[in-house]
Amino acid sequence: MSAPGTERRAAPGRAARAAASVPSVPASPFAAHRLDFTLLAVAVAGISLSGPLIAATAAPALAIAFWRNGLAAAGLAPVVLLRSGLRRELARAGRRTLLLSCAAGVALAAHFALWLPSLRMTSVASSVALVTTTPLWTTLLLRCMGHRPPLAVWLGTSVAFGGVLLLTGVDLSVSAEALAGDALALGGGAAGAVYVLIGAEVRRTTSTTVYTFLCYGCTAVLMLVLCLATGASLGGDYSARTWGLLLAVTVVSQLLGHSLINRVVSGLGPTVTSTALLLETPGAALVAAVWLGQYPPAAAYPALAVVLAGLALVVRGERVP
Known about the structure:
Structural class: mainly alpha
Number of helices: 16
Helix content: over 70%
Radius of gyration: 23 Å
Strand content: under 5%
């Protein structure tokens, strides 16, 4: 028989070995990325307000794109330049980071240049639904880059694309201008996919603040060139209400929307992040109906349901990193 003291000393060892033998239960993707999913929800809410805010702003579409990016970059500049850590990160940014950030800025400029005019040519619901085909383009581009999405992702994107085609069909009976607006919005969705994929790559080594400062700055310069080339008014005749709406779309849709998308894409991955943007469709349609009185035709509602069903399949099929 061992001494009492020995028995007590041996017990913790046996307990530790017993505890070690119990298999650990891995945390769910949501639990492991709870903050990312929360920030993603805020980003989607901010982006959902983008379409209705832009539709209510009495300014040229290209000028809106310039101001939302230019004001966002101007707002980020003091943060980047006055915080020593961010200032050092910017100074040490390599050529690859700078080139990729500028490439993302080009893709974002193309996204805005194609999508924003469509908001004035077709309904907000249709325009937003088509521009949020970004996850469909993202899945296709990832496949071209060698990534093999699960079958559920392909099925989900196909279902979502079917919903997009159904919603596009709503405008076929409206006007040729609406159909042209649909085409522009679809091109904006493809450019958005390039923007998300490049952002996911840059965010591997670069902070959200520095990346968005570089990206938005590049986009603002390109949009300024387009505004000057097309003669779009940059503000000489804007009302106080227009300036207020421009500030609102900058804060809500650009800084909270796009910046938070860039914040979470490194953790959730480009497929899940871009797929969540499909939630912008019902969100923007609801805001447009309540605020602008722009109710979509009855055929749009089943189309939105199909898009959301595809979204659910993609989220279930794609594994969060």
